[in-house]
Amino acid sequence: QYNRVWVPDPEEVWKSAEIAKDYRVGDKVLRLLLEDGTELDYSVDPESLPPLRNPDILVGENDLTALSYLHEPAVLHNLRIRFAESKLIYTYSGIILVAMNPYKQLPIYGDAIIHAYSGQNMGDMDPHIFAVAEEAYKQMARNNRNQSIIVSGESGAGKTVSARYAMRYFATVSKSSSTAHVEDKVLASNPITEAVGNAKTTRNDNSSRFGKYTEISFDERNQIIGANMRTYLLEKSRVVFQGVRKNLIIPAWEAILSLRV
User: Fold this and answer.
1) Are residues 168 and 247 part of one domain?
2) What is the mean pLDDT of residues 37-62?
């Protein structure tokens, strides 16, 4: 049985291929057989051999660290299989949660799902933003120490929505007595801060140019008692404003806007 490898492709980024002839040190060409039956002579040197493909039994793993070979084509292929074939948008990479934006609403964020993840250890159930939120909430309650969740990604990746779901989880499991969702209150400041500085990108017509730091406060019973969101303007070159009163003008890039609920 020949080993399978990944080779770069201008359209599909990476293509799978089988090694049709054993490679020997010093060979300048590797004979490959693509999945469509096409033979390919791939130029190689001992320091730039193509990355090996994982066994089929590992394809679709819910944790990327479980793969035998962890490199760019392996990660992309595993995420594609989980997203396109299994309709799963979440995948772990150790303690990191990788999320694929489906650009549509999914029925996986209701109260029943929240209660299913409540009290569970991270890794006991399928990867989910609720599992990350539960781990942070549990560590905070158990160790009485502040916890942080970093949500990062490119424009249009779904960072704001992910943060909203995490806050919804905290509000539900802490049995907050607030009549309005905490995430709605915190995110209500977005139209104010994003009224200046947003920009259109190739992937998002209304891309925020801000970095947001949201702090949620809990009491001794681990119930939410308030939240504070600071918004930092990252690109001052996009700021335009008209000063009405000279003594009230504050350079927008020096201002930190905050909201308390």
Assistant:
1) yes
2) 90
